[in-house]
Amino acid sequence: MASAYNPNASAKDFRVAIVGGGMCGLACAVGLSRFGIHADIFESAPKFDEVGAGVGLGPNALRALDGLGVLDTVLARGDDAERTLRRMVFVSGQGAHGEVYDYNDSSEFTDADTGIGIYRPAFLDALLPLLPNPNATHFNKRCTSISTSTSGAQVIHFADGTTHEADLIIGADGIKSTSRNAVAGTDEKLLQFTNTVAYRGLVPMETLRLEGVKTNLARRVYNFIGIDKHIIAFPIKSGKIVNIVAFATDNSVPVGSVEVNGPWVQPVPQQELLDRFSGWGHDVVAMLKHLKTPSKWSIHTLIPLETFVRGRIVLVGDAAHAMAPHLGAGVGQGFEDVFLLCELLGHPSTNLSNLEDVLKAYDAVRQPRANMVLKESFRAGVIYEALGKPGYGPNDMESHLAGIFEPIWRHDLDADVASTVAGLRERGSFPAVTNE
Fold first, then answer.
1. Which of 34, 66, 102, 221 is the most exposed place for a label (fewest CB within 10 A)?
2. For the chain, what are the domain ranges?
3. Per-residue pLDDT tens for 277-286?
4. Which residues contact 52 (CB under 8 A, 6 or more apart)?
5. What region holds the FAD-binding domain (predicted)?
């Protein structure tokens, strides 16, 4: 799947700058380097850093990482050498946590339908050695705006008063992206609070075993569901640690009607978490009891953007399609963005003169797909937290959830590349015959 790295590849005639050095920004820089494309990374923080939490990567995300040439390194260095995440099991959050629905029951399972849970900082640690030029990374560079010079170059303006010119800017600066403003405008209403908060933390698997937790959290993703609440638990660090995310939603007000004052991520007293899930079953209480210092995340999403591209500025990851985490698909969609973008930019026919056509072709594929996943992710959260409501009894959950993961997991990324290149040829942006 991955394009072979050619150290003798001719340098492209366009300069690339990446705004944001998170998971997608680093993956993009490494992916471009495989085609001999140099990219400067501008990160607002004083160093590379990711919040200390786990993230699930589905099979589509792993295929994208494989296409970028980094999967083996991520598996080896990320302490998650085995694909341990299999399909979700839905159990009641109450009582003895009786099974409500096993996703395997409604869809044929294959080995290709496995993913991994990985510690976010471990992912960055895996990619950092793959960056071809450490001097191309610039810290303490907070992008405030992007403009176009009289020569047509894109100009990044930073909070420290400096600027940087490039021919192509890749906005990978997350949900609070400033590069997004150059594509979609400055309307803050593009971001909306979902009325859901998530309490996150990590607990050693052995601690839960000693606590008498009977739910087998070693190889499956478990979803403890109930009215207006649910808890996702899955293994990371080769099954040594359980990543726990406890969601609670206020459905008394419309989505988007409440603004969150203060940080979107903040530490909270453990008692707040325990009070939220008071009366839930033994295994849930045991897990939450060992989240000594939980962090509370106010879950925001983007209203679907009409485009991820303007001129020679392109958005990837949360900058383009920040979504609720209920399908574990947000980071994976970012990696799909990066894979397709790198393949198109690295194509022998791509150059400065047709760069905007190439970005439009990227947008035609990624915008509808990522926005579909964004909408489905929100819908999944509504279903998870409906158990016990009319029409959402244990026997109804399969009808609401069956088939929700397949369009995400089984998407053909190579076909995206092939069809996009074919379209560029048909429109004359690429020559009909190339020396590929």
1. 102
2. 16-85+113-188+302-390+406-426, 191-301
3. 999 999 999 9
4. 119, 120, 121, 202
5. 14-376
Other beta carbons within 10 Å of 310 = 16
Mean pLDDT lowest among 5-14, 101-110, 231-240 = 5-14
Structure tokens given for 391: 């029409």
Residue length of the chain: 436
Tell me what pLDDT residue 435 has.
53
Q: Is the pLDDT of residue 111 over 80?
A: no
Between 3.40.50.2000, 3.10.580.10, 3.30.9.30, 1.10.357.140, what CATH number should domain 191-301 receive? 3.30.9.30
Going by DSSP bridges, is the β-strand pair 163-166/143-148 parallel, antiparallel, or unpaired? unpaired
- Render pLDDT for 40-63 as a digit per residue (tens, 0 to 9): 999 999 988 766 677 889 999 999
DSSP 213-258: --S--SSEEEEEEETTEEEEEEEETTTTEEEEEEEEE-TTS-TTS-
Contact 361, 429 (CB under 8 A): yes
**Confidence bin at 5 (pLDDT 50/70/90):** very low
User: DSSP letters of 377-391?
Assistant: HHHHHHHHTTTTSTT
Kindly give, in sequence order, each residue whose CB lies less than 8 Å from that of residue 108, ignoring residues fewer than 6 positions away: none
Q: Parallel, antiparallel, or unpaired for β 154-158 and 143-148?
A: antiparallel
